[in-house]
Write a structure and sequence with these properties.
homodimer; 13 helices; 36% helix; globular; binds flavin-adenine dinucleotide
């Protein structure tokens, strides 16, 4: 048997692979695309890593992008769409960083191979998994949102939506001056959706990701549908117009003359259907496979948690592999127990944030954040601690008791 | 609201109460018996605390019984009843201690009250719990094996037995010379049951507990049924005879002339039905109550885990109370997640040990222990770590891989 087999070279598979290589466990990663294809292809996402993830990267010996220029320090909130917009910042205890995955993943893959990991370029089919399970001690499915995740039934109790709640349009742009202090701007246009404006390091250098999260049927939905290729100038003009109308806190830092997409591949349009799936599956031959990352739990990108959660989960799985390498159902249950609170909190929190209309206790919390810096900072810090965020947000009573703790009766 | 209300002043309720008082949380313990009744009554059990529990006691500032005379260092195994008995010791990394609960619990209760805990002597009925739940932020049911535990449904998936698997007879005796080095003797009479011989500190001083765990229908069952009061000398004579015949490793250290029960109350006969119950229940008023200790999970005393597990569980619950004092279903689930592996491992391991006939992989492990001191020591050390013990014992494959790790192909 040849150690651990991982399907998928995303953050889930690579964080797990690097952790296991640090402990000399043999690892093979199977991926349908080469490092060059990952590096040269269409933009994959616009991921920010929060400090809990950066701490894990340091523990893995990933020391790139550590200069001040790559970091940002908090969130600038703009809650508009009503008569009186709310505007306030919130700060992390340690900074976050957003590096384009076309740079990030190939770098991790290079490191994985340099540390003795085996990388096999090959699309794995569901039908191949039994064979892989007989070659490896354990097979981990970390293949993202694609069809392989169907091996793990969707949990209805944790998956409240049957259709995507946002239509996405994310691109990399020049011509947006950074916010001060450098941060992500989270702009909410009530009833229409959100704009996440992210300072990102990409192949074109320091640029700005604009991630429009548009309510289906709303006034910005078309951003997810119109074609850039057909009419680049028309596309950029529409983005500018919608930003001016619905997301003024970002628009005021845009220089329209310089505003443009950094390239035709630096754009992604689509939608994400949130799903929490079972942690593991039993194959016909009696062996178990584990789901990891998006193959296990997909969240809408609105609060930027999917990759951070995939990294957390890779770590949890790696610890159990190192502690107790007996890959039976007891093993799978331990993995599930270990990550459950964090992963479910991530999904529950995200699903709350995309509920339309927003629940009153969320609006109550936002109002309190605008009045009390400590409240805003705790919410912002909890982007590294979704479990703690859900301790605050799970019920209206919890919001009340959180605010009472901050002296807000 | 007046802090935390705990029903039951056993180790579960008292460890939780002392932990919470260290953090100035208001706590009320309700118990149906006074400290004097506990101290002066019939023997409650013959509990040994392993080092993980002793570490928690030190953290709680319980510093009694810390001289060398109270400790013991491992287990002397005697596996008889077949043609060739196996005999071998196993040692802990740190010692265990057995103090009669008629000394132990009143001492903890005294400390609890001295530290500002409230102690109310009163039998609580199931019907009172709603009222208590409106007086306290949280009600914890730590009332032991009694009827209150029926609030928490028994989990069929974790409770394999419908009748007790052993008939118990435990008493405190003079006239048994200690084993060398001081330890618990675990004697197995194949098909008949076990004898646990425990060096115990009791009101009469340093004495020996003999805990006979008798297979129902077997040759020692009558020990659980005959009356001491009717014929003290006849009772002691029968105990001696059965010990000689079935548990020679203990018998050889008995001086029959000095052998006698230390008092009529120093004897307990009966049987324990193992059960794993749900972690929590929702009351008609929407509030939640948590089960703790024997009220949550009862195990047969054969490997002395119930009280140690109750202490672990009290600690886990206490940590969640201190972290996140919002006593809703999320809270209950976090408690359940936190203790599940440890508590279920305790139950699963114990239920394996009382299976008749014993499963072949358990016998394989015993044989290996008799040949390899490191294997015997790891098994013995794991009396403080039931989760690790179950990592070894959960399946025949796990025993094989554990033995392979010790170089035993
Ligand atoms: C627009 C956008 C913005 C986002 N922003 C954030 C953010 O700010 N913060 C955050 O934490 N998360 C964010 N996310 C989510 C994040 O991108 C994902 O959660 C994360 O990348 C998932 O990683 P993964 O390793 O599980 O899967 P993936 O990254 O999808 O990796 C899976 C890999 O497996 C390969 N593969 C798939 N099928 C097969 C097969 N059959 N055989 C072989 N290989 C296969 C794929 O090619 C891919 O390389 C965002 C997502 C989007 C879409
Ligand atoms: C013979 C024997 C040997 C054992 N040996 C060991 C050992 O070596 N190691 C080990 O770890 N465990 C051992 N155990 C198990 C251990 O005794 C129990 O698991 C442990 O004591 C349970 O503690 P508890 O606090 O949950 O319950 P209990 O100790 O039963 O405490 C419950 C308390 O609640 C009170 N109460 C009950 N109902 C009510 C009510 N309605 N209202 C108010 N008060 C109420 C009771 O009077 C009691 O004081 C042994 C058990 C037996 C029987």
């Amino acid at each position: 048997m040849e150690g651990i087999g991982i399907v998928g070279a995303g953050i889930a598979g690579l964080h797990l692979g690097l952790l296991l290589r640090q402990h000399d466990v043999p690892v093979t990663i199977y991926n349908d695309r080469t490092a060059e294809q990952l590096a040269g292809g269409r933009m994959l996402n616009s991921v920010a890593h929060h400090h809990a993830t950066i701490t894990r990267e340091r523990a893995l010996g990933i020391d790139d992008w550590n200069d001040e220029e790559y970091f940002y320090y908090g969130h600038h909130h703009y809650l508009g769409g009503g008569p009186r917009p709310l505007r306030f910042p919130g700060f992390f205890s340690a900074p976050s960083r957003a590096v384009d995955y076309r740079l990030y993943l190939p770098r991790l893959l290079e490191e994985f191979v340099a540390r003795g990991g085996e990388f096999v370029v090959r699309p794995v089919q569901a039908a191949d998994v039994v064979r892989l399970s007989e070659r490896h001690d354990l097979v981990v499915i970390a293949s993202g949102r694609g069809s392989m995740s169907a091996m793990f039934p969707r949990r209805a109790d944790k998956s409240p939506y049957d259709t995507p709640q946002r239509k996405l349009c994310v691109g990399l742009y020049e011509g947006v001056a950074p916010s001060e202090p450098r941060g992500v701007t989270m702009s909410v246009a009530a009833g229409q959706g959100e704009l996440l404006e992210i300072p990102m390091y990409a192949p074109a250098g320091h640029v700005t990701a604009l991630l429009f999260e548009n309510v289906p049927g709303g006034e910005l939905e078309m951003l997810a549908e119109i074609s850039y290729e057909d009419d680049p100038a028309g596309f950029e003009k529409l983005v500018l117009e919608k930003t001016r109308e619905h997301h003024p806190a970002t628009f005021e830092r845009i220089d329209p003359a310089r505003f443009h997409l950094t390239g035709p591949l630096d754009l992604l349009q689509g939608a994400v259907l949130p799903a929490v799936r079972e942690d593991y599956a039993r194959l016909p031959n009696g062996r178990y496979v584990i789901a990891l990352g998006d193959a296990h739990t997909v969240v809408d990108p609105v609060i930027g948690q999917g990759a951070n959660c995939a990294s957390y989960s890779a770590w949890a799985l790696g610890q159990v592999i190192l502690d107790d390498p007996n890959f039976d159902e007891r093993f799978c249950r331990k993995v599930a127990d270990r990550r459950r609170n964090h992963v479910h909190a991530t999904a529950d929190w995200t699903n709350l944030m995309i509920r339309t209309p927003p629940p009153p206790h969320l609006l109550r919390l936002f109002a309190a954040m605008s009045e009390n810096q400590a409240v805003a900072d705790e919410f912002t810090e909890n982007f590294s601690h979704p479990d703690r965020q859900w301790d605050i947000l799970a019920t209206p009573e919890r919001v009340t008791s959180f605010l009472a703790r901050h002296g807000m009766g």
